[in-house]
Amino acid sequence: MSNGNNEQIANEQNNIPGQQKDVNVKDYPSAQELANILKNVNYPADKNTIINSVKSNNTDSNLAQLLDKLEDKLYNNSSEVVSAIGLVEK
């Protein structure tokens, strides 16, 4: 399934009556790529651990730049990281 299809499916789900969507994803491809990389990180993890994990996966520079926005603290899961850099709003 391509990234375009993921976004299309998510948009279609917004039109289904019932439970309201809990999050707003600003950039599906980047959020998906980052979450895929971060699934192998041992949490809780600090900013440096997260950045080193992303850099070791040869990701695009856009993700590396976004990760510079992270506060220097411990993160409990990839969802916290993706939210902290602004790819997902709750």
What does the model show?
This protein has helices at 3-13, 28-38, 47-56, 61-67, 78-84, and strands at 24-25, 45-46, 74-75, 88-89. By secondary structure, it is mainly α. It has a two-stranded antiparallel sheet. The protein has a two-stranded antiparallel ribbon with strand order 2-3.
Helix content: 40-55%
Supply the helix-strand structural class.
mainly alpha
Classify the beta-strand content into a percent band: 5-15%
Measure the end-to-end span: 25 Å
Q: What's the SSE pattern?
A: HEHEHHEHE
Main sheet? 2 strands, antiparallel
Q: Any idea what the shape is?
A: globular
Low-confidence stretches: none
Number of strand elements: 4
| Count of the separate structural domains | 1
Mean pLDDT over the residues:
81
Count of helical stretches: 5
* Spatial strand arrangement across the major sheet: 1-4
